[in-house]
Amino acid sequence: MHIRYLQNLQTSTLFAILLLVFSNVAPGQTEPSDPDVIPFDNRTPTWSETIAAFERLSESSAYAEMIECGSSDVGRPLHAFVLSEQCTEKLTLEGLTNLRSDGRKRLGLLINNAIHPGEPCGVDASIAWLRGLVADSSALASVLSVMDIAVIPMYNVGGAMNRNCCTRTNQNGPEEYGFRGNARNLDLNRDFIKMDSRNAAAFSELFHAFRPNVLIDTHTTNGADYPYAMTLISTQPDKAGPVLGPFIREEIEPFLYASMEAKNQPMCPYVYSKGETPDEGIIGFLETPRYSTGYASLFGCIGFTAEAHMLKPFSQRVQATLDLIESVSAFMMDRSSDLHQVREEEFNRCQNASELAVRWTLDADRTIPLEFSGFEARREVSQVTGDIRLKYDQSKPWTRTIPFFNHYRVADVAEVPSFFVIPQAWSEVIQRLERNQVEMSRFSQDTTAFLKVMYVEGFRSTNLPYEGHHVNSLDSIRFATEPIQLYAGDYMISTDQPNIRYMMEVLDPRAHDSFFVWNFFDSAMQQKEHFSAYVFEETAAQMLSNSPVLQRDFESALQGDSALRANPKAQLNWLYKASKHFEGSVNRYPVYQSMR
Ligand SMILES: [Zn+2]
Ligand 1 centre and the CA of 117: distance in Å? Predict the structure, then answer.
């Protein structure tokens, strides 16, 4: 007892000394210097300063409230700042669900900042925008009569705490910023479907309670050099579907590009170059549901990723981000009834669909002419490696038409069943479906049901983990109908419910970011029982002598397959697979469907 007491005392004393030594320098925990000043210089606030600035904003308006949406991975809360006519003091996440239940239709605009804390333009821009809005009561009243606003001050809280000067290697400021990886080194902008982080779980709660029509996720680029300070990734129109797609391509995008131009802030699509430089054209980015905007579009929300250019000074990037937020807001003000209508039409489309696309591929044959300004790309000898290197010459700007590859073709279509069945054993999948408000019922007793099943006939996994998973890519599947043993408590999921598109794109293994791709079903993809050849020899011989049909099939397999002829082990395995001993369920995907 005595010794343990001394050990405890030593530990706590040491802890106190460590606190004394580090408390004044712990990054991301400093007291705010002057949180009311967002100076548009080369600084960006720390997490504490940011939260203090948003708290002050919420105190300055009766229509504003800061809410906590649960915890982030680092243990600090994830905050959302809400601006709404219906804001009441002590608004909670649960209360957010009722925010727009007063019978009057209002849009929802959600802004997500610092998912990559090294790219913090949106933090400064959001504070500046909201300050301007809150200070102008008539402008505020007019905005809030059309929409509710929610802003996540800093999404990647753990990354924001891990502040440094330099990890954004090629970026022009600010002086200090947070780190890309979160508290468990996840890139949160790949985490919306697999939801490994508590941040993503909290985001989904906020997202479903607030039900935004439009999401803006703020970033800074990597990649090529060109004159634009702001580039834009919209929800890819073909992936968005026949209702939202044309509206994005023909209505929203032209408005946003013209609006930015009018502010002397020309903007271009995100520069994802086809070749090494933009000269040969750029490709429209397919933001699959692992990304924030791809996730949002599963629920009929139109997403914009603001990508400020890394080489422009930080203050210019903040201004460009602010300009884009204002342009998006102006579109929402102008076209609110159309936005309500397309959302409703998209909802109806998904509800009534007998099949839905789950995978898209670039149509390399179709291009859109894009007037683009670039810098001359030169090749010269590297002083470091002696090889030829790329250099952009900012003194030689050019403007010409380049091809924009932004048409995607549907690669896989899935039939929408009446219902899915998932055994309760797959609890991680069930938990994610619940978090995305998928309604499920449970079997009250054990039963056997004839269901449509899929067999995974070929797939590959990455050797190294990517974002915490050995990601799978599917080669082929085979459908069958089989009796499936189900147990009391297993889940039946009707597709006659709102979040059908989400369900299809996580449960169909062919979808880009399905739970199969993110390896939630890997244990179903392994054969559990095998045979000992020296024992099975007798069984196989008996099988062949008992069944002339098997004998004939075996001989024709041998004739048609020289590899099989040359491999005795493979021949035994062929017979094992044809025997009653082989487990029929190997590689059977454990999400079953009604036979429509
Ligand atoms: Zn980013």
Answer: 8
Q: Beta-carbon neighbour count of residue 450 at 10 Å? A: 12
Query: Could you tell me the distance, in angstroms and rounded to a whole number, from the CA of residue 219 to the centre of ligand 1?
Result: 4
Kindly give the distance from the C-alpha atom of residue 51 to the centroid of ligand 1, in angstroms, as a whole number: 21
- Which residue in this structure is represented by tokens 């203090």? 52
User: What six digits make up the tokens of 350?
Assistant: 């998904």
Give the environment of ion ligand 1: residues with CB less than 5 A.
116, 119, 219
How many C-beta neighbours within 10 Å does residue 166 have? Answer: 9
Distance of CA 224 from the midpoint of ligand 1 (Å): 15
Does the N-terminal peptide bond of residue 289 adopt cis geometry, omega within 30 degrees of 0? no
Distance 267 CA to ligand 1 centre (A): 17
Give me ligand 1 centre to Cα 74, in Å.
20
Mean pLDDT by 10 residues, the chain (596 residues): 44 45 41 56 95 95 94 97 87 85 88 98 97 95 97 98 96 96 98 98 97 98 96 98 98 98 98 96 98 98 98 97 98 98 97 98 97 97 96 97 98 98 98 98 98 97 97 96 97 97 98 98 96 96 97 97 97 96 94 92
CA distance 386 to 389: 9
CA 193 centroid distance within chain: 6
User: In which residue are the tokens 């491999």 written?
Assistant: 567
C-alpha distances in angstroms, 168 versus 45, 46, 224, 348? 17, 16, 15, 44
Contact 124, 323 (CB under 8 A): no
CA angle 122, 125, 128 (to 5 degrees): 150
114 alpha carbon – ligand 1 mean position (Å): 8
Amino acid letter for position 308: A
User: Which domains are seen in the chain, by residue range?
Assistant: 47-236+285-345 (3.40.630.10), 411-527+587-593 (no CATH), 533-577 (no CATH)
**Ligand 1 centroid to 218 CA: how many Å?**
7
Distance 278 CA to ligand 1 centre (A): 20
